[in-house]
Amino acid sequence: MPVLEVSNLSKRYSGVAALSDVSLSATAGEIHAIVGANGAGKSTLMNLISGTVSPSSGSISLDGKNVRFANPQAAQSMGIATVYQEFSLVPQLSVARNVFLGREPRNRFGLIDPARLMADTRALLSKYKIELDPAAEVESLSVAQQQMVEIARALTYASRVLILDEPTAVLSLREQENLFSIMRRLRDDNLLILFVSHRLEEILNIADRITVFRDGRKIETLAAAGSSISEIVNRMTGRERALPKQPAPVQENAESYTIEYKSSGDPQTIRIRCGEIVGIAGLVGAGRTGFARSLAGLSGRNGAVRIERDGKTLSLKSPRQAMREGVVYLTEDRKRDGIFSGLDLVANATAAALPDLAQGGIRNRRAERDRAASMLERLHLVAASLSLPISKLSGGNQQKVVMARALLTHPKLLICDEPTRGVDVGGKAEIHDILRGLAAQGTAVLVISSEIEELLSLSHRILTMRDRRFVAEMPARQTSEKDILMAASGAAPAKETS
Amino acid sequence: MTEVSRSKSPSLRVLSHIHRASSHENAVWWMIGAGMLGAALFVPGFLDLQNLANVARQSAVLGVLAIGQTYVITAGMIDLSVGQIAGLVVVLSSAMINGDTSMTLPVAMLMLCIGAGIGFFNGVLLNLLRLHPLILTFGMLSVLQGIIFTYTDRSVGRTSEWLSALANNDLFGIPLSAFLVIALAFGAHLVLTRTRFGYHLVAAGGNAESARRAGIRLWRIRLAVFVVSGITAALAGLLLAGRIGTGYPLAGNGLELDAIVAVVLGGTALSGGRGSVLRSLAGVVLLACISNLLNLLEVSAYLQMFIKGAIVVLAILLNQSRKGQA
């Protein structure tokens, strides 16, 4: 019997349909994946089911009874738990206080019992084998750990339906595996799990059924067993997927960067040539971002970097200096330190190029607009207007704007940290094309990604990090996902790079 | 910081532990300790019991204000109207009591209700108009000042013996007002650290959107903290009236800033989400000690302003730079 039934559901925002006439039924004890490109209506559907927004027409029924949620709390009280894509944690508070926020255990005097709060949290975490210190402040945790806090929080009240909106985007492999086993366990406890993800492989691996969305409509629900990635992609895009492209060969006599990195143990040296794309693989916490931030002059906390371009030492003590030398870092956390959420696309795109565009310190709006427009066009950004605030764009389009900002400073060494996180299949391919194009024009590109598949198709070489050291170097053409995973997790005695 | 300290030798670990303990939140206790020690060694008369009781009496008014302000700031807001609420209470209560002790209780009750009412009004306006609390309560500050001066431009009435006794007398050599403030602070601390209201207040100050998603009703928290702030401001006004003895219309001027400084000295984040009533009280004591020391050293009033300002900025700078490192 279906636990959740959605019939003829539509949602319009000021006349524009975000979701049109969707009917869907999902049963208890199933993992039901929802896939589709950005703007396909997945998030809208999840928001409707979780009570965050209310439908324009159509109905939702839970256990056969028609329900209307006035707010998210109404849905929560009926056992529908949601793990939001953007975090809903309070950074200054402990893990325990976040997990039970709004439903703290009280003793008979009505006072909160901190010891019981800790104990309950510890019990919940150990029940689901989540390795976290209940007393740790959320602020001090990595993004992946914060995601696990978010999931633990949802587990405290998920009794009928658990909605996971791209939960694995920031998780390391081990945490992903753990999340999948939690999901299987909840399925066996007869919960319905709605699972939104862009990673088709993991969907085929974990889901029972898959519903594909395109342009606000439901296309089809498939059984995961017997489906293939290309089948799903065809339904998502309505066209065949092209073969992965190859990066252009690097010129033999190209200029090169020599980077000496000292964090834990002896200093290590890596090289990257102009026109080359070098991938950096590693588990979350391996120190990839720390290396990148040191390299771009953002923080010296994670180790010291000495960088030479053709024998000339560059001094990069601040992002400003780094940018002047053409070394630019693109953040992994767009929302926190990538976008200016209140500003429009032009301001976001030209923020770093202002010194260039402002004559004598006076801003030239038209030049800014022209420059932004031509760069965004080059990146195939589709937006109704350049005056939109960036927060109105999808993740993939926000990423393109942030990339435009970096490109407008004419980088010679571009460091991209998780450039396609939260970006749909189509947007991903476009961002890959942009990076390949940059390299072909002589930019040295370092790409950090948790998606090894992405690194394999994008880079010339792949470096693997573990415990803040480079532990392996492999040419992308002659290596496999498995080799890299082994090196990253320390499963095999990997040979250190010099 | 944690990662680094793990790999260090034991002695270094101890050092970094001390550094961390002395950093951010608890810095105020260290500053008091160091200051007291220095004062005891170099300033004759500071450790005198009579002098210390004096410091406590001087701290009481600010202490009560700082308790309310800690709630407001921890919830991510600010209340600039408290000084003038206290000032209004000083003038009104003195005028109404006018030396008649039997009027003390009813007037005190009325004053607390007025404080609560002004706080309630602040809270309602904040919720309805969605103004920034800085602007809103600054407006209230100005309005109240206008009301006070419309009523009188010179001192009016006389406070009651009871209020005067509460503000100035001792029990077992300890000022009565100190008992009051300490009891109040422990009560407020308990509410902040052990009740749902307290938990939700901190969460709302840390990240309002997350708190809202967790089902916390933000409007109720906002309303409640301003009511608490109004009541504590009125209580501070009663104590202040007891100390001054008469309805002096300028009595409350600038108190709101002293209260905010004390709260921040105590390590409460101006951005909300972190706060402790007890540490705010320590901030108040620190401020009072500085004043007291400067008086004992017979520093001129103008120079005192200069020195106090510099010390406060330095202390908060110290607080922040260490927080940044940790």
Automatic annotation (TrEMBL), chain A:
Entry keyword set: ATP-binding, Membrane, Nucleotide-binding, Repeat, Sugar transport, Transport
MF term (GO), any: ATP binding
Keyword Repeat: yes
Domain ABC transporter: residue ranges: 4-240, 250-492
Family: Belongs to the ABC transporter superfamily.
Name of this protein: Sugar ABC transporter ATP-binding protein
TrEMBL record, chain B:
Localization (cell): Cell membrane
Signal peptide per UniProt: none
InterPro entries: ABC_transp_permease
Residues spanning the membrane: 27-47, 59-92, 104-126, 133-152, 172-192, 223-244, 301-318
Domain of life: Bacteria
Membrane association type: Multi-pass membrane protein
UniProt-listed Pfam families: BPD_transp_2
GTP-binding as UniProt keyword: no
Entry keyword set: Cell inner membrane, Cell membrane, Membrane, Transmembrane, Transmembrane helix, Transport
PANTHER family: ABC TRANSPORTER PERMEASE PROTEIN YPHD-RELATED (PTHR32196:SF21), ABC TRANSPORTER PERMEASE PROTEIN YPHD-RELATED-RELATED (PTHR32196)
UniProt name for this protein: ABC transporter permease
Origin species: Pseudohoeflea coraliihabitans
